[in-house]
Write a structure and sequence with these properties.
- The protein has 204 residues and is α+β, with helices and mostly antiparallel strands.
- The protein has one domain (6-195).
- Helix content is 16%, strand content 31%.
- It is built from 3 helices and 10 strands.
- The chain has helices at 81-87, 109-128, 143-148, and strands at 6-7, 10-13, 16-19, 38-46, 58-65, 75-80, 97-105, 154-161, 174-183, 192-195.
- The strands form 2 sheets. An 8-stranded mixed β-sheet has the order 1-10-9-8-4-7-5-6. The chain has a two-stranded antiparallel ribbon with strand order 2-3.
- The two termini are 23 Å apart.
Length: 204
């Protein structure tokens, strides 16, 4: 099938099974699952393709594949890209490779909000396809996704450019979007995740 249906009930990080119940608190009588969906779009580039000058003050999502990474990325993160990636310089093994998506400028609120959403959904997709980063110790922040479902029944992310969950040397840029959709079902039930990513192919 082109997508796999899962829930956000459990997350597995660093080999440890972490139960994370996402049963919803009541959203109130104003919630309707039939209003238009929230959409977050991101174009991922290879790290060495993006000029340093264009990253000054830029907010977005980055996916690091360090010198030890083989079939899974090392880390998925979000925030002010230069600042955040610089913090990892002594933490991970060089050389660094990977991807980034710029969502906007640090002075605006929306890019930070969208970066948190994109990071959380990518981590959920990575967990579902056996590509969970080796150094992420916690799931993404759910705060902004929770807020979306107070006015929207569906969240969708669209990823173009490079697939950040593929090994950098094997990835090819594409204008066709891969999508991940998160659906609200009802209060006290987990969200449903549907996506275009396939299960990681195991090496023989």
């Amino acid at each position: 099938m082109p997508w796999r249906a899962r829930t956000f009930v459990h997350w597995s990080f660093a080999g440890e099974r972490v139960a994370r119940s996402l049963k919803r608190r009541p959203l109130g009588s104003g919630h309707s699952p039939f209003v238009p969906m929230e959409i977050v779009r991101a174009e991922f580039f290879r790290l060495d393709e993006v000029p340093l000058s264009s990253l000054i003050g830029a907010v977005g999502v980055y996916v690091i594949w360090d010198g030890k990474a083989q079939s899974r990325p090392t880390y998925i993160g979000e925030g002010t890209i230069l600042e955040r990636v610089g913090q990892h310089a002594s933490r991970f093994t060089r050389p660094f490779d990977g991807y980034l998506a710029v969502l906007g400028d640090w002075s605006a609120k929306r890019p930070k909000r969208e970066a948190e959403i994109l990071e959380a959904v990518l981590l959920a997709v990575a967990s579902d396809t056996d590509r969970l980063p080796t150094q992420n110790r916690a799931p993404g922040k759910m705060r902004e996704i929770d807020r979306i479902f107070r006015s929207h029944g569906t969240l969708r992310i669209g990823v173009t450019g490079y697939d950040p969950l593929l090994i950098p040397g094997q990835a090819r840029a594409s204008t066709r979007a891969k999508t991940a959709t998160v659906r609200y079902v009802a209060d006290d039930l987990p969200y449903i995740l549907e996506h275009d990513w396939r299960l990681r192919r195991l090496r023989s």
